[in-house]
Design a protein that fits this description.
287 residues; Pantoate--beta-alanine Ligase, Chain: A,domain 2; homodimer; Rossmann fold; 6-stranded parallel beta sheet
Chain lengths: 287, 287
């Protein structure tokens, strides 16, 4: 399908307004570019649900900390456009520098509670940057179905809460993690891994599976024992620097005292230059 | 004109979407009810500019501090409806308790810089509450022209900045202060004044005029001398408790070192149970 690339906010809004006026449902896939098969699965899902798929491609500086990888984050709009079109997108929003914020924004959207544990604790201000850019992208894209990957599980929870609290005219669609054949969750940041690190990287997923087995096969109900199982599994590979391993409620991200219902196992670790995150659901055997 | 009152978010959005689909421009007047001639001037202005005027009537708890007048704030939806209709509104959004936030919101919209001086310093968290509710009202009302009074001058600046930073599909229209014959700016909180206080209340405006004369007639360029003139004027009436008198840039609300162009003179004071605010423009004679 031919892809139309749009650079300016006003033209983007007009284009999507015209589609809606023609009775089309807009599927929005917000991305930071560096598209991979995970993004393609979001676009394909949106193409199945909606009449037109609109992908946004913008590396949002607000969600990077001062010591993070904003400068090195991979950018290739032309390649992104080919991948988006192949997956079924018709429209690509690729604002040049200065288009989104001619002056630094004073406005910040914050989601308390959900933003504080895990990624929020490791990356201060990260979710304020995420909530702010997503609020803006949703405002300038208008009413739509918006697709986000469960790979960024906490981000998805933050966005759902924001959309609900602010009554944004958006249906938030969470989509499953897409993995390579060896289990590594797809991520633009996997590009930072050298060959040795790439071979080790699936052990992050295996650590999650160790936790999942503890819950589902062993019937472990103590969250501390489950996170220990995840940490012990990852410690077999000293190349990883574990950031956190957590058992959380899948809706509000609180830490249960006992596991008695579906939980989400979440993990983050450094490996070489990359910081990787992943998560899996786990359900105790009596559920 | 017959007024339609709507209580639910979904019905409000659908009603305004239908008007827009029919090609109508929506004029939105967000209020906390207790409508007076100031609100009527906003509604009349909107009726002149737009095809349909939609008034929201919701006392937003987020913008009140713990020791402020949330419980006593005047509420009378039926009276508001009559006044809104008389001024030319067709639609009134009056959400019952629990409709706006079934659970306390976790999401907060903050506008740094503009929110910090004057009202922000006196009322911590006030503008976060304002920005959050206005973001929500604009999201659930959809693309529109939105009318706000200059009486709340800092609020207007905060909202303009938020709309720009978040690319909300809204034209923000600021409208002049409406005053009683003796000069008192109309405010729902004037209802808190007893007869003696009401007679004294215009002295707040006269203090602004003293500052305006200093700038415009005396050519005073030192902001400190202008605020002194305002304070000295108000001190003649010890019933007032001056909160602040300020000379600010009309766009970014910063305090100029010297006055050389239009400025805004702002004042806030307590009088009896009420806390009153007001402002006027002032332009030096060489402009």
């Amino acid at each position: 399908m031919a892809l139309q690339t749009i650079e300016h906010v006003a033209a983007w809004r007009q284009t999507l307004d015209a589609r809606r006026a023609a009775g089309q449902r807009v599927g929005l896939v917000p991305t930071m570019g560096a598209l991979h098969a995970g993004h393609m699965s979001l676009i394909r899902r949106a193409a199945g649900d909606c009449d037109v798929v609109a992908v946004t491609d913008y590396v949002n500086p607000l969600q990077f900390g001062p010591t993070e990888d904003l400068a090195s984050y991979p950018r290739d709009i032309e390649r992104d456009g080919r991948i988006a079109a192949e997956a079924g997108a018709e429209l690509l929003f690729a604002p040049p520098p200065g288009e989104m914020w001619p002056k630094p924004p004073m406005t910040s959207v914050q989601v308390s509670g959900l933003s504080e544990p895990m990624e929020g604790a490791s990356r201060p201000g990260h979710f304020d940057g995420v909530a702010t850019i997503v609020a803006k992208l949703l405002a300038l894209s208008g009413p739509c179905w918006a697709y986000f990957g469960e790979k960024d599980f906490q981000q998805l929870a933050v966005i759902r809460q924001m959309v609900s609290d602010l009554s944004l005219p958006v249906a938030v669609m969470g989509c499953p993690v897409v993995r390579d054949a060896d289990g590594l969750a797809l991520s633009s940041r996997n590009a930072y891994l050298n060959q040795t690190e790439r071979a080790l990287a699936p052990n992050l997923y295996y650590a999650l599976l160790a936790g999942k087995r503890a819950v589902e096969d062993d019937g472990e109900t103590d969250p501390g024992a489950v996170t220990d199982a995840m940490a012990v599994s990852l410690e077999k590979h000293p190349e990883f620097g574990l950031d956190y391993a957590a058992v959380v409620d899948p809706l509000d991200l609180t830490r249960p005292v006992r596991i008695h219902g579906e939980v989400r196992l979440c993990i983050a670790a450094r490996l070489g230059r990359a910081r990787l995150i992943d998560n899996v659901p786990a359900t105790p055997p009596d559920n």
